[in-house]
Design goal:
The protein has about 325 residues and is mainly alpha-helical. It has helices at about 1-20, 20-50, 65-75, 75-105, 115-125, 130-140, 145-155, 175-205, 205-215, 220-250, 250-255, 270-280, 285-290, 295-314. The protein has a single domain (about 75-280, about 290-314), classed as MetI-like (MetI-like fold), CATH 1.10.3720.10.
């Protein structure tokens, strides 16, 4: 009788382990707990902070409704940060996608030294963003910038130069040049990731399609726009999605390069939330500013996933 009971118990345990639904739930449980602890709890805490008047000096949670959001929206720096966030994201992603397509197509060909070019291409992404941005801080220095030295040697800067007698461009000291500098660093950082993703998409294009295009004698541009680009659209949507999320939520580049200056001309939502909530001590407004990132990112994710799904259907 005992032997029969043990066998039934063993069979029941094996059936549970063979059940995909049960096994899948067990395997997903650690990830769900991790995500809830890492994202869920801070998210609900931020909602609670944004509906209160909590500060570093007064940690009590007094409910004030949406007055914190109204104060944030009416803040001129917040409005400038919101605009800058969209400008940085849209402009940098357009440049990244165009440059990544060119690099992916070039690196998909066979030539000597391709492994070295791929290695150098991955360095910006492999380098810690704070360390890489510190390097750019030296490159864009107002006195020792090598870019200024090259422009001076080319008679673009300095006496008789096309941009005035000054030998320095002051990349991080003028609003327009500071914005260009921040966008440049974002592009430098994200091009490797987008290129690798697009190279994976190029290798996934069936060889019989390539052979048919070669037999038909189709030119490069026609092949790219009528064959390669439509097949790469879902992969490009994924690369753009990652790039938008990284750019929209990143504050390291702005923090290291300009700290939002000059005169908040390069301030973005993530950096302004940090300065307002952490350095400024207004935790309620800092949380409210950070929450503005959520609906925009959700909308971007939905749009990109729909684009990728529609492209796969077509």
């Amino acid at each position: 009788m005992a032997i029969t009971y043990d066998r039934n118990t063993q069979i029941e345990q094996q059936s549970l382990l063979d059940n995909e639904r049960v096994l899948g739930s067990v395997m997903l449980l650690p990830a769900i707990v991790y995500i809830v602890a890492l994202v869920g709890l801070p998210f609900f805490l931020a909602i609670g902070y944004s509906l209160s008047d909590i500060t570093v000096g007064d940690p009590s949670l007094d409910f004030v409704g949406f007055s914190t959001f109204r104060a944030v929206i009416n803040d001129g720096t917040f409005q400038r940060s919101l605009l800058n966030t969209f400008v940085f994201t849209v402009v940098s992603q357009l440049i990244v996608i165009i440059a990544a397509n060119m690099l992916a197509l070039a690196l998909n060909k066979n030539f000597r030294g391709k492994w070295l070019i791929r290695f150098l291409l991955l360095l910006p992404w492999a380098t810690p963003i704070a360390l890489g941005t510190i390097g750019w801080l030296w490159v864009l220095d107002s006195v020792f910038s090598p870019i200024d030295w090259l422009l001076t040697q080319a008679n673009i800067l300095g006496p008789g130069g096309a941009f005035g007698p000054s030998a320095h461009a002051y990349w991080l000291g003028k609003p327009t040049l500071a914005m260009i500098s921040v966008i440049t660093v974002h592009v430098w950082r994200l091009i490797p990731l987008a290129t690798v993703i697009l190279m994976a998409g190029l290798t996934a294009i069936p060889q019989d399609i390539r052979d048919a295009v070669a037999v038909d004698g189709v030119g490069f541009w026609r092949e790219f726009f009528e064959v390669t680009l439509p097949l790469l659209t879902p992969i490009m949507a994924v690369a753009t999605l990652f790039g938008v999320i990284f750019t929209f939520t990143d504050m390291a580049v702005v923090f290291v390069l300009t700290r939002g200056g000059p005169v908040s001309s390069t301030q973005v939502l993530s950096s302004w939330a940090y300065f307002k909530g952490i350095e400024g001590g207004n935790l309620a407004q800092g949380a409210a500013i950070a929450l503005f990132l959520l609906p925009v990112l959700v909308a971007v994710v939905i749009a990109m996933l729909r684009l990728a799904r529609r492209s796969e259907v077509l």
